[in-house]
Amino acid sequence: MAAQEQQQPQSRDTEIEDEVPEAPPATPDAQASAATQGVDDLLDEIDGVLESNAEEFVRAFVQKGGQ
Amino acid sequence: MRVMGSETEYGIHAPSAPGANATMMSARVIQAYAQITRQKTAGGAETRWDYTDEEPLHDARGWTLERSAADPSQLTDQPPVLDAEAVALAYGRQELEADGSDETGSLLMNMVLGNGARLYVDHAHPEYSSPEVTNPLAAVTWDAAGDLVALAAVRKLAADPELPPINLYKNNTDNKSVSYGSHENYLMPRSVPFGEIVRGLTPFFVTRQVICGAGRVGLSQDGSRPGYQISQRADFFEAEVGLETTIRRPIINTRDEPHATADKYRRLHVIIGDANLSQVSNYLKFGTTAMVLSLIEAGQAPRIELHEPVAALQEVSHDTSLSTTVRLLDGRRVTALDIQWIYYEAAAKLAQETGVSDAVSGDGHTQGVLERWESVLTLLGSNPPAAASSVEWLAKLALLEGYRRRDGLEWGDARLGLVDLQWSDIRPEKGLYYRMLARERMQRLVDDGAIARAAVEPPADTRAFFRGKCVSTFGKQVVGASWDSVIFDVPGIGKLQRVPTREPLRGTESLTGELFRKHATAEGFLGELLGPPPAPRG
């Protein structure tokens, strides 16, 4: 996830901002699994927030026209 | 940088009362906020919108649409009359009765807020139109303030045991073929030919979604084709240029209602954007568009023309790999990022020439926009997931991909549709954007305190200051207001006093703050503002 490790093809010398606050793990594998763990924690939290009965809830969200 | 503002139409839904009338629910939202602010006047009437200067049928290309040829939804210069009969005509009497209310005549449809914004019922949605601001950071702040205003109304309604709770969503489609807008407005000199605006803006508008699209589960207007796309709005656009906003939506909207001195200014009404919760996407949406308008005004907009802009808009939206190419009139094929880089380079060059991006003598905003714009484009070209903390469609996609990986969901699965919808729930405990923000997975540009202040206080540097302060200081005597007027009814003076505010950069705190501090009464205030100087006293 570390922005600096990916050099973009354009010939730009501007430093790329570090967009992600967490320090990057050393290897790509460790990095990927840490990222997955982070997402799984997030999903666990969101599971508890999501409306129950997704199908029914989504179907009932019907809007009148707007601009 | 430039006078600008936002408009947000919220999706509205009462899960426990499916089929409830959307216009009446929207009016309840406005009513709830009025109860909170107590800005209703003593007589029970709201601060009415002054429709005198609304001209929704004026076309920037130089003509006026006949009223008889207009779609009824285009007649926004008439106050909406929401009585039981009108609602029944529009939506059927059965629905009215099912909603359990027929006392609609007294519902509040329109408010002017102390922060200078307008909160009202637009068609079948509550809409917040931000006060005029002068830079993209303030645009983000007062736009987010609208979400706080809407949240306060939602909380108030949820506390009422008599009525079903109402949810509001800052999104742009119900995924069943209906879309509702999030608009931007930019002040421009009238002298810029409209054709130049169309030519200069179209390739930019087709491609800016890669930095400010909000992301959408489902392809096509009714969302029936499984998949994920960059923009909420792209599939609803059918024309390149036009006056309509609700039908045959055009990439460039020609509504010519300057809400200001008409021979000097035009208000560019932009209807193609997605509603943004991501502060960085929202900031870049306003900041980069303002800079492209400066390019057009300087005659330095990139000379690129798309072969088929509407098709290109949708092709770009449907390709989350950012690799699809669109055809230019000269035969070249380029990616959306290529086009964004062309605009970036031109904008950076002009800013350097004019000095607005200078660290010391610049305008204090252009350099920040350029830096963000460059860093986001660079990440999108090299490592898009790293841009997920700033670019809204990528943030939403990361969450959706998490669900797909963990639970093996296909794009057509209703849970992914729910994640998309609930992303934009404006309640921080339910809205998934806000859950991501709380975990610092989304970047903040403006802190919560500044947004809370902006829900109450107007910006200091536009006429919104005057409008907002009039409402919050002399609310009982303000009987009407609009973008370019405030109307007073002062006891003892026979006629209404209309104060025109046709110069967007007047009525500021530095010009009128002292007047508000000096006068405790509307009589004294208006006396100094409008009247002949009071006779000298001994």
Describe the structure.
The complex is a heterodimer of chains A (67) and B (538). Chain A has helices at residues 28-47, 54-60. Chain A is mostly helical. Chain A has a domain at 26-60. Chain A is elongated, with a radius of gyration of 20 Å. The model of chain A is unreliable at 1-18 (pLDDT under 50). With 538 residues, chain B is of the alpha+beta class. A 6-stranded antiparallel sheet of chain B has the order 6-7-8-1-10-15. Chain B has a 4-stranded mixed sheet with strand order 3-18-19-20, covered by helices on one side. In chain B, 52% of the residues are buried. Residues 39-46 and 81-105 of chain B have low confidence and may be disordered. At the A-B interface, helix 1 and helix 2 of A face strand 2, helix 10, helix 11, helix 12 and helix 13 of B.
Keywords:
heterodimer, A: 67 residues, mainly alpha, 0% strand, B: 538 residues, alpha+beta, 6-stranded antiparallel β-sheet, 4-stranded mixed β-sheet, 17 helices, 38% helix, 16% strand
Percent helix of chain A, as a range, is 40-55%
Q: Based on CA inertia axes, which overall geometry of chain A fits?
A: elongated
Low-confidence stretches of chain B: 39-46, 81-105
Tally of extended strands of chain B? 20
DSSP summary: helix tally of chain B: 17
Query: Averaged pLDDT of chain B, please?
Result: 89
Q: Which band does the percent of strand residues of chain A land in?
A: under 5%
How many angstroms separate the termini of chain A?
Answer: 38 Å
Structural class of chain B: alpha+beta
Percent of residues of chain B in beta strands? 15-25%
Total beta strands of chain A: 0
Proportion in helices of chain B: 25-40%
Q: What class do helices, strands and sheet pairing of chain A give?
A: mainly alpha
Written as H for each helix and E for each strand, in order along the chain, the element string of chain A is: HH
What characterizes the major β-sheet of chain A?
none
Mean pLDDT of chain A: 70
Tell me about the biggest sheet of chain B?
Answer: 6 strands, antiparallel
Global Rg of chain B: 23 Å
Anisotropy-based shape of chain B: globular
